[in-house]
């Protein structure tokens, strides 16, 4: 039985409490927050604490979820490891790769389990596009774009402070980048990043990141909190994958999309002008009737609860850990490289 304590009982801490309540293999024992008002949201029968050390002293708790602001993750991981608790830390796991290496060192020394809550590996839009890529149905994939756009512009709460790990790169960026790294095969050779403060004075709210892999795939991750159109469902998720045997797109938090192919390719005949609907030998403009052929996306069934379901199987030696520390170290190292690239306006060699 997983017996949880939650350190940090804000939005994510309360979300974890609701999720834990769904499972017959888990029980929430105690929660902790320095803000006494937050503790009023704890369910009846759950212990409440103002100090993390008090929660960690409870021998009934075997697993701790750390959901405090980002800059406090390392301190809390050290405390939990010293207390002998298995650890699930919220993303971003750390402020940089060096901090995460320290987390790996202390958890390995304490012989406690350690993972990071990357529940968006179970996003439906992501799993749809990953299933298409993994199937090989598009042939040789050459490009994958992952985008998210918004209209509010401003960040909120502690997310406006860079010293707390605020900004969109650490908020949504780690999810979008983790999805790309977990899907695209091969070494990530180079990174180029444009990271900007469009509306917010202190923290990033726009980025466009180019990823080039030795498998021949170029990835692009773009996010803007103030990136406006009046198109329906624009302010949601957007995926595009291009291969030499077709393309696929997925749009929306309640995703819709298709696989798209052509019934024929334009053929040039030596000595003759090949005419198309848009003029001689043109690839652009309206496609002739019947040229584009669409197919439905595959069926996938996923939800965020699966993070904990898989974690429970790992604890019971039924499968490997899904979100592995080595993978997150790669992700945190990528975030460091992105910061360098954006600051120096240059491509950075990565692996």
TrEMBL record:
Residues 126-248 form the GFO/IDH/MocA-like oxidoreductase domain. GO terms for molecular function: nucleotide binding. It comes from Trichococcus shcherbakoviae subsp. psychrophilus. InterPro entries: Gfo/Idh/MocA-like_OxRdtase_N, Gfo/Idh/MocA_oxidoreduct, GFO_IDH_MocA-like_dom, NAD(P)-bd_dom_sf. Residues 2-118 form the Gfo/Idh/MocA-like oxidoreductase N-terminal domain. This is Gfo/Idh/MocA family oxidoreductase.
